[in-house]
Amino acid sequence: MDIIVLLPLGRCSKIQELQMTTVIEENVHVFGVDGNSDELDEPIKDVFADVAFAKKHNLMSLNSINWSRVLVQMAHHFFAYFQCVPSMDICPLPTVEVVVPTGAAGNLAAGCIAREMGLPIRLVAVVNQNDIIHRTVQKGDFSLSGITRLTLASAMDIQVPYNMERIFWLLSGSHSGLLRALMEQFDRTKNLCLPRKLHVKLAQMLPGPRLGCQVPGRRPPSPAGPRDSQRHPSAGAHEDSVYSPSERR
Question: Which residue windows are coiled coil (predicted)?
């Protein structure tokens, strides 16, 4: 098996960059490329859309474009809940608040599915200055907002959280026709206003003012100049979850 890694140049911390570029195994191939995370997703999507090519080369992605990753993250939410609430003899079961730093929203989608399965959790999506999910929940505005801002939480510097499509599908009652129309409009115009019914359900799924939590940003490096990633104080933030018990509301 060969592993291909696309490294967005100048958009990772020095530690992250070294973790990827110092691998010596012959089956690992790391390519430094220009562009942000959203732009790197486009060729990957195109490759997987070529069904014959993907089948011929037995392609698989470790990113959350692969449903199996979301499935595993669902188990994380259940495991964490049972750690916080070790006894199931409590009635009603307490709600556990799950705070999810969110980029492509894979972990968030997993939490939404777990919640729909009956797990008593309250999800809080935390974003940085690339706040499309915040705007979507608060205003129903699933639209791009100019350039992708480079922040200390580099793994969250995403403007196209593609797992929101899965959340929309879940909350629409598995309405594939509606979802296709919505996502085709977004792909075409990069601008989408959610139908009111869908927006209301999304706001109920992801309540809470902390959706607007921001991480201080920094200016992106000049493409022609030296990268100052050594001054980057963060080792990079990844989608993860913080769990805390809270009272049912």
Answer: none
Q: Which DSSP category does 210 fall into?
A: G
d(CA 18, CA 37): 18
Give the mean model confidence (pLDDT) for residues 138-142: 94
Query: Angle 226-232-235 (CA atoms, 0-180°, nearest 5)?
Result: 130
Which CATH number covers residue 86?
3.40.50.1100
In 3-state terms the chain splits into helix, strand, coil percentages (rounded to 5) of 45, 15, 45
Q: What is the mean pLDDT of residues 15-23?
A: 91
Over the stretch 156-172, which tens digit does the pLDDT of each residue have?
A: 888 899 999 999 999 99
Q: Which amino acid is at 202?
A: L
Nearest Cα residue to 168 out of 182, 158, 189:
182
pLDDT on residue 243: 46
Q: Is 40 helix (H, G, I), strand (E, B) or coil?
A: helix
* 183 belongs to a structural domain: yes
Residue 128's domain comprises: 67-246
CB 195 within 8 A of CB 229: no
161 shares its domain with 193: yes
